[in-house]
Each structure stands twice: as structure tokens, then as C-alpha cells.
Design goal:
The complex is a heterodimer.
Chain A (H helix, E strand, L loop, with lengths): L2 E7 L2 E7 L6 H8 L18 E4 L2 E4 L5 H4 L3 E3 L11 H8 L9 H13 L5 H4 L11 H9 L2
Parallel strand pairs in A: 1-5
Antiparallel strand pairs in A: 1-2, 3-4, 3-5
Helix pairs in contact in A: 3-6
Chain B lengths: L4 E3 L5 E5 L8 H13 L6 E5 L21 H28 L7 E4 L2 E4 L4 E4 H9 L47 E7 L6 E2 L11 E6 L14 E8 L2 H10 L4 E2 L9 H13 L15 E6 L1 H9 L3 E9 L11 E7 L3 E6 L4 H12 L6 E5 L13 H13 L3 E4 L2 H6 L7 E9 L5 E10 L31 E8 L14 H18 L4 H8 L3 H13 L11 E9 L2 E10 L7 E10 L6 H20 L5 E2 L2 E2 L17 E6 L23 H13 L17
Parallel strand pairs in B: 2-3, 7-17, 15-16, 19-20, 23-26
Antiparallel strand pairs in B: 1-2, 4-5, 5-6, 7-10, 8-11, 9-10, 12-20, 13-18, 14-15, 14-17, 18-19, 21-22, 22-23, 24-25
Helix pairs in contact in B: 1-2, 2-3, 7-8, 10-14
The chains are: A alpha+beta, B alpha+beta.
């Protein structure tokens, strides 16, 4: 009953076998591929901790079937840049944004997706709907303002 | 130097801490303190949380629990002394090597000891082996405040680079070779227990009944009761689905039918009106009234003779912690040999004791690996989830990661207690307070932990309600233990989150009844110069006296917790029955000393919004023992677009090196004064007083 499929994550192909083709992409990325930067928060597409880019678009991986992600270009926080050089990562360090940091992978992927779609500065902010329970929004906003 | 502070022959400097950094910056802050008197650059200090050292005795003591905004304030002088003593041991090793016992001939800079007469250098790494053989001196001179290079400076946090590239490992990220996955399914009803052990679902490895380990259960959850099952499988998703589908029969005691909000509120109202007094040596069951301070009879008499009498009741709900990272723990247990535990815990030392209790292993055979925490907020000081993971590990005898789905995390929390606070006070014709009678009715956090309550009740329940610096005439503060057995625990700022709301709203109501400005009224009741300075600064920075636009309101509140004084001014607009706009918040704090003002500012801003989420939306409700809010969909929180602009000012203090002044905490201090400042602002905007939180109990959120 198991299904074998290929996921392209951060430019690399991973062949995985799943019992349930409706396993969310999140759990395939974390448990089967072993990239744990993408986080589980709510499982119902509200918090955004699981956000990744799929063909350049921010998607909540907790509610996307792994089978529908096969063959598409998936980028996780680990693939956002080499050595934390993406402008959003640079700004996040400069403004010392994270507290606990758990939500920040998803936030940064939302920011990166908005930038890729052509948004700059405060117009990025309106695209970012992620929850941060530490409430680091003020420094996020300051960091985003320079992007 | 010892097992906690190590100076390596490779020039490394490693400090092991028993406390946990959940994003406060406290680990980096401790490094900032240590490096000052050790005389090395901040960048050279490596911090290790937990690990094998936990089993070692801490010679200078160390914060093992990360609670009560305590990490920095409890360790500040200890780490300064430790750094100075270690430095002098290293210098003594240099003196011995140079055969020059004149201390004045040696100076230290960034871990290099310079011998002036010979103009030669010895590094800490070169001296470490010899220094390790020396007996530490009892004390050593500290760096003068005027020479500080690190303390009080806004250094960058050491953990932030790991938190922007996904490499920070939280508990839920642990992956061990051959690891299984366990997903917890609790009885949905508090007090319910397992009727029959379920069969192992198809494709799964095990279905493990989980019992409440001694010391980990609260209220309805008594030691030995089997209140959950863990399904064990090969990945999170398949195991979670099997857990959802698992058919389990639970025994639900008849008393569970009364575990609901309406019942809890009625009980609280009755106890606010009448409750039997504490009797020394008596049984003092739940429902007992404890006099925290003052005298009820004289307060009542003073109030009765007043020109004006105010009477108000404030009601706050149970609130979930809702950390971004759900509860989880990974265990690698080898029977009779060892147990490694990987946990996002605020209490690593308590976890160590628990694992000894459960496995019978020696402390030296157990290692608690404290991971990064995706929020703690008090919930991860508890041990229930660690106990469950160890129980599963002992059954499957191979590495296993146990996690609570979000719905379990919301519905099986140890909640911020509900509270009903009744306040009654009098004013004379001149607008002065003649008497003050305050009674808090709330479930006891310490009582649910088996701590005997003395004559003044639960110290956690009364924070923010006693030793008020206001001149309130004849005053009494009472606390009544509410009998609700719903599990309660420590939620960021604990009792102050209840009491500061009620006290500061009541003070506002008195000010308005006296026809006075709420800021100036507070000022007239205060004599403590530190309180007055904080209040004045908040009023100035918050533009208290500036004209308000139509529909806008401004509120003020001040309070104390964990030795720190905080005042806030909040400005709101667009207040309706379903929403409001919080525009600006000003926070002023006196914690006596801020090791890193940037960390403190960030914590205060976060605390303000933590308070904001709870004040507007936060509550958990119960129906027949079942928690009703199961996810963020019914526990709304603000997103970035709703973020108010928060201004922070720290009152500086020049007397840093005064050991006689207690340092204050910072991590929880943004929370308590926000709710009353907001409620007071809403009154200013609408002339309608809100005494029951949250403002918007039925708010929801979606994607």
C-alpha cells in the first residue's frame, strides 16, 4: 500500500516512501528527509510555523499533501541561503528579532516569498500573517522596513 | 575551575547553566556577567544548558528552575564572584610560573595574563592545568563599575544566528538513530481514567498506557491514575492518525459533571461573600479564607464611615499557555545502564530527580539534555510530559520521541488559574482613601502541588495584591482557596496577572469617583521614590496630559512583581463590542540593574503583547470536565498588523555594585500592568467599565 515519490527540496531530490499519500508535506520534510527547521505549530494552517516555498509561493506545509508536492521545487529555511546571507536573515540578525525563535523559520519563509513576489518594505509586512507567541512583531517590522 | 565553569587548555571557556533560555536572552546575559570579572571578551564564552554536569553539586549555587524571572537576578553576584575567583586562580598560576608573588606585577586582558617586569604573556589556556590544582580563594576583587566593558551593554544574543537558518534544535527536532515516535492521547475529560488497555493499532509498535507519576499530577490528575495512552509508531503523521483513530474507553467519575465554568463562577461568588477563616493547626479545606495582611474588621469599619463607598468584582478566566512548540520529550533508555532525556524543560534538575524516581538509575547514569525551548511561559517547568516519555522509553527500550498534538497541548494544560477578585474601598470628602478590603478567590497553584498553606495562603496567588505602596487607610488583603480541581500552574507573571488587574482597575475607579486624574491620584497615594519615579516617567513618555482625539482613550497602571516596578500607559481607539485598536503602549521599568538593556526591552515588548493577547482573547473554558478551546482557532492572538507601537524606558540606577539591593526580574514584567492599563484606557474612551476578561471571549481566527 505504500507509495514512493520524489520530493525536490532545496535543489536536491529525495525519494521517500509513505504509507499515506495524504501525509502533510511538513512531516515528510521533518521525519522522512530530516530537515527540522520547518516547524509544527497548529496543524490547521493558522500559525504559519510550517511555511515553506513551493514553486516560489509561501505554502503552509502542515496542510499540503506530500503527494501534491512531488515534482515541485520546495525551499525550506535550510535552503534559503548559504551562511545566512539572504537579506531577511541579515536583517533579522541586525535587529535581533527572535526570542524563542520557534516561529521564525516560517516567518522568514513568508518574508522571502513576499520579496520574491516583488514586495518591498512595509508591503512585505502585510503579506506576513504568521503567529509569534513571543510577540517579536515590533522588531520584525523594523527589520522588514529596510528590505 | 569546577564542573560548571571550565577553562580549556585550548583557550575555550565554557559555562554550564542549570537554567534554560527560552528566548529571554538569559543565557547570553549570564555570559555577559561572567566575562566581566573573568576578564575575557563576551564572544569567547560558550554556554551549555543542562547535560551531565547537572548531577554535580553546584558550589556557588545556580538557578536550576527557570521560573519567577529569576535567572539573571539570582545568578548575578554568584557569577561575578565565580568569574573573579577563577581569574585570580589563573593569575596565581601565572605568579607561580613566573616565581613572582607580587600581584601588582600582573594584569589581565581578554584571557591573557601579562607579567609587566618580564613583559611576557601567559594565556588562560596555558595556565588552566596549573590553575585547576589550586584551591579557590573564598573571594576575589570585582571589576569596578566604572571599568565595565560588558555589563549594561547591548551585546548581540549568541543564539540568534541559529534561529534564522533553522539550525537551532528544539526538543521536537531531536532525531536519534532508530528512533520511534509516540503521540499522546489523553482522556478528554479531566479526572477520567483508562478503563481497558487498548490493542496495538495495525502498523504501530505499541500502545502504552500512561500513568500520572508521583509529583507530576495536579488537581484532578492524581498519582497513579492512568489518564492517557501513547501510540508508538515509525513517524509522527502515521502515529498521530493511529492515535486519533484509536478507540479507548475511559471511566469518567460522576464529579466530572460539575467541572464547568458556570459552577466555578458560582462557587467563587459565594466564597467572595463568605468563607470560613483559616485556623492554625486546623484542616483548612479548600474554600478557606486566609488573611494575607491587615485586619478585616478595622477595614470594614473605616469603609463603612466613608463619604463614598465603591464596591467592584473582577473576574478573570483560566488561560492556556499555548507555547509555539507543543510539549514533547525524547528518551533513549537502556535498562539498568543509562537514560538520556532530551527535553525543552524549564526545570532540568527536577527532570533528573523524576528520571531517578521512574527508572531507579543513579543520577550519574542519567543525562538531561536541555534543548532550545519553543516558548516555556511556565508550562515547561512541569514534568508530566517528561514522565510520559520516560514511561514509553521504558516499554519500547529504544529511542523514542513523544509529542502532544496541539489539541492535547490546549486541552491538557496546567492553566493560569481563574480568579474572582472583590474589592471594596471608601473615600472621604477630600478624595482620600479611608479603607481598602480586597479578597482574591482563586485555585491554589501551590496547594495542587502538595505545599502546605500557612496563615497567609498561597504566596503565588497573592503576588501583586499585598504590600501595596499606596496609602489606603485601614486595609485588608485576603485570599480564598477556590476548590476547583482543574489543573493550574505557573503562567507568565503568575498571581500578579490576576491581582494587578483588579488592584489597578479599582484604583482607577477610586480616582474617577474622587474626581481626580488617575495618574495624579496614584501619585498622591504614593511615597516610595522609586514608584513615583517610574510613574512619572511613564506619564511623561506616554504623553499622559496630551489632548486625546475623539474616540481615543488613555489608561495608566503601575505594579510590582519579582522585585521590579513597572508602569504602563496605553492608548486605544475604535473600541466596539467585538474589537478595538491598541495604538500605543509606553512601558517604564525599574529592575535596579539591566545586564543587557536590549534583551530587557525585547522581553518587555513581548510581555506587553502576551498580556494583550490574554486581555483581549485569552481563556479556556470547561464543560463537564472537557476543555473547550482546542487550537489557536478559538484562542485568538494578534498578528503583526495589529501590533501596537511599544516604547520602553528603563530607569537607570547608578549604584550597580550594591549587594544589599535586590535585583529585579524582567522576563515576565511586561504582562501584569498591561491589562489594567488597557481596561482603564477603554473606560476613558467609552465610559463603560470592563471588569471581566477577556474583552472578546468569542473571538476566533482562521488562516
Amino acid at each position: 500500500m505504500s507509495t514512493t515519490l520524489t520530493l525536490n527540496v532545496n535543489g536536491q531530490n529525495h525519494t521517500i516512501t509513505v504509507n499515506d499519500p495524504s501525509m502533510p508535506l511538513l512531516w515528510a520534510i521533518r521525519d522522512l528527509i530530516g530537515l527540522t527547521g520547518t516547524k509544527y505549530g497548529c496543524g490547521i494552517e493558522i500559525c504559519g510555523a510550517c511555511t515553506v516555498l513551493v514553486d516560489g509561493q509561501p505554502e503552509k506545509s502542515c496542510d499540503m499533501d506530500v503527494s501534491s508536492a512531488a515534482g515541485r521545487a520546495i525551499v525550506t529555511i535550510e535552503g534559503l541561503s548559504a551562511n545566512r546571507t539572504h537579506p531577511a536573515q541579515v536583517a533579522w540578525i541586525k535587529h535581533q528579532v527572535p526570542q524563542c525563535g520557534y516561529c521564525q523559520s516560517g516567518v522568514l519563509m513568508s518574508v522571502a516569498g513576499a520579496m520574491q513576489a516583488g514586495h518591498t518594505g512595509s508591503s512585505i509586512a502585510s503579506e506576513v500573517q504568521n503567529l509569534c507567541v513571543c510577540c517579536t512583531y515590533q522588531r520584525m517590522r523594523e527589520a522588514i522596513a529596510g528590505l | 575551575m569546577n564542573s560548571w565553569l571550565q577553562v580549556g587548555t585550548d583557550e575555550s571557556i565554557t559555562l554550564t547553566i542549570g537554567s534554560s533560555d527560552m528566548g529571554q536572552g538569559s543565557a547570553s546575559g549570564l555570559a555577559q556577567v561572567l566575562c566581566e570579572d573573568l576578564m575575557v571578551d563576551y564572544a569567547r564564552i560558550q554556554i551549555v544548558q543542562g547535560g551531565p554536569t547537572l548531577a554535580a553539586v553546584a558550589p556557588i549555587g545556580t538557578a536550576i528552575n527557570t521560573v519567577g524571572s529569576s535567572v539573571t537576578r539570582n545568578n548575578f553576584w554568584k557569577l561575578r564572584d565565580a568569574g573573579a575567583i577563577a581569574r585570580e586562580m589563573l593569575v596565581t598560576a601565572a605568579m607561580n610560573q613566573k616565581a613572582d608573588l607580587v600581584r601588582a606585577n600582573f594584569t589581565v586582558s581578554n584571557g591573557v595574563v601579562h607579567h609587566t617586569p618580564s613583559n611576557t604573556n601567559l594565556t588562560y589556556g596555558q595556565l588552566a592545568s596549573a590553575a585547576a590544582l589550586l584551591k579557590p580563594p573564598a573571594s576575589a576583587p570585582l571589576v569596578a563599575d566604572s571599568e565595565f566593558k560588558s555589563i549594561g551593554k547591548p551585546q548581540d544574543r549568541k543564539d540568534i544566528p541559529l534561529k534564522v537558518d533553522g539550525s537551532a534544535k528544539y526538543g521536537i527536532d531531536i532525531q536519534l538513530k532508530g528512533m520511534l515516535y509516540a503521540v499522546v492521547k489523553h482522556c478528554p475529560t479531566f479526572s477520567g481514567t483508562l478503563a481497558n488497555a487498548p490493542a496495538v493499532p495495525s502498523g504501530m509498535v505499541a500502545a502504552v498506557p500512561l500513568s500520572v507519576a508521583a509529583g507530576t499530577g495536579r488537581g484532578t490528575e492524581v498519582a497513579g491514575a492512568i489518564n492517557a495512552v501513547a501510540v508508538v509508531g515509525h513517524n509522527t503523521w502515521d502515529t498521530w492518525q493511529a492515535s486519533k483513530d484509536l478507540s479507548v474507553t475511559w471511566n469518567i467519575p460522576a464529579g466530572a459533571a460539575n467541572l464547568d465554568n458556570a459552577h466555578f463562577l458560582a462557587t467563587a461568588q459565594a466564597l467572595a461573600a463568605s468563607a470560613p477563616a483559616y485556623v492554625a493547626g486546623g484542616t483548612n479545606p479548600a474554600g478557606t479564607c486566609y488573611t494575607v495582611e491587615g485586619n478585616a474588621t478595622s477595614a470594614a469599619a473605616a469603609i463603612a464611615g466613608s463619604a463614598k463607598i465603591l464596591d467592584a468584582t473582577y473576574v478573570l478566566p483560566y488561560v492556556s499557555h499555548a507555547c509555539m512548540e507543543v510539549l514533547n520529550c525524547t528518551v533513549d533508555y537502556v535498562p539498568g545502564v543509562r537514560c538520556d532525556v532530551y527535553a525543552p524543560t524549564q526545570s532540568a534538575k527536577a527532570a533528573l530527580a523524576l528520571v531517578v524516581q521512574l527508572t531507579g538509575l543513579l543520577e550519574s547514569q542519567i543525562t538531561i539534555h536541555t534543548t532550545f525551548l519553543g516558548g516555556g511561559l511556565g508550562r515547561k517547568a512541569e514534568q508530566d510530559f517528561i514522565s510520559q516519555a520516560v514511561q514509553v522509553g521504558m516499554v519500547v527500550k529504544q529511542p523514542v520521541k513523544l509529542m502532544w498534538p496541539r489539541e492535547e497541548d490546549f486541552t491538557r494544560d496546567q492553566y493560569r488559574p481563574m480568579g474572582l477578585m472583590h474589592a471594596r474601598a471608601g473615600l472621604n470628602a477630600a478624595g482620600q482613601v479611608t479603607g481598602w478590603a480586597y479578597r482574591n478567590v482563586s485555585p491554589s497553584i501551590l496547594g495542587q502541588r502538595g505545599v502546605p498553606l500557612g496563615a497567609t495562603g498561597d504566596s503565588q496567588g497573592i503576588e501583586g495584591a499585598h504590600a501595596l505602596p499606596y496609602n489606603l487607610g485601614a486595609a485588608v488583603t485576603e485570599w480564598v482557596s477556590h476548590p476547583s480541581p482543574i489543573p493550574v500552574g505557573f503562567w507568565r507573571s503568575v498571581g500578579a496577572s490576576l491581582n494587578t488587574f483588579a488592584v489597578e482597575c479599582m484604583i482607577d475607579e477610586l480616582a474617577l469617583a474622587a474626581g481626580q486624574d488617575p495618574y495624579m491620584f496614584r501619585r498622591s497615594l504614593l511615597t516610595d521614590p522609586r514608584w513615583i519615579a517610574v510613574l512619572d516617567k511613564a506619564a511623561t513618555l506616554g504623553n499622559w496630559h496630551a489632548p486625546l482625539a475623539a474616540g481615543h482613550g488613555r489608561g495608566i497602571a503601575i505594579g510590582t512583581a519579582f522585585n521590579t516596578i513597572v508602569a504602563q500607559v496605553v492608548e486605544v481607539s475604535n473600541v466596539t463590542s467585538t474589537r478595538m485598536r491598541v495604538n500605543n503602549v509606553t512601558v517604564v521599568m525599574d529592575c535596579y540593574l539591566a545586564v543587557n538593556p536590549s534583551f530587557v526591552e525585547h522581553q518587555l515588548i513581548g510581555g506587553v503583547v502576551h498580556g494583550l493577547n490574554a486581555t483581549l482573547y485569552g481563556r479556556q473554558t470547561f464543560l463537564k470536565g472537557v476543555a473547550q478551546n482546542r487550537n489557536f482557532s478559538h484562542s485568538r492572538m494578534i498578528r503583526m498588523g495589529e501590533m501596537p507601537q511599544v516604547k520602553v524606558a528603563l530607569i537607570p540606577n547608578p549604584a550597580l555594585s550594591d549587594r544589599t539591593v535586590k535585583l529585579g526580574g524582567a522576563g515576565e514584567l511586561g504582562v501584569p500592568t498591561f491589562a489594567p492599563a488597557l481596561a482603564n484606557a477603554c473606560y476613558s474612551a467609552t465610559k463603560v467599565r470592563t471588569r471581566t476578561l477577556p474583552f472578546f471571549p468569542n473571538a476566533t481566527m482562521s488562516d
